[in-house]
Here is the input.
Amino acid sequence: MYIAGQLKQGIRDYLIIDSPTAQAYKGFVNNLAGDEPPTHLLIYVWNITNSEEILRNSSAKPIIKQCGPYWYWPLVIKFQLSWQNDTSLIRYKEWDSYYFDRTLSAGDDQLDIVTSVNVPFQGVYKALHSTFASLSRCSLSLYRSMSESLGF
Here is the structure.
């Protein structure tokens, strides 16, 4: 029972943040200040290497090359912390930032030029294009019928 109680208390001390003096408070407020290993973000991008050819010839197949990884270290800082009445709830604001690590990355995020497809734009364009095409046909039909009825 003693070991189970000590284990339970250790977990509680590590996970519960009920005041600024709590053991895990520093790591909660700033992700780089705690005892845990830092997390990182790896980003890979796909570069279309023959973009000029694709623009000239719509039937050309894209040649794609994977670029990366690009390593980023997140910095998360919580501020304006306030405990609610029973200290079981903490309200706070959060500031997130990512820092590029040139030493671990396969490229330079400021110098590498990547050409890729803007998928969200393509989806919106396709949806709007078909909508406007339908509206154009309706407008043209309405214009013709009004012109005929008015004798133009």
Summary: The two ends are 97 Å apart (CA to CA).
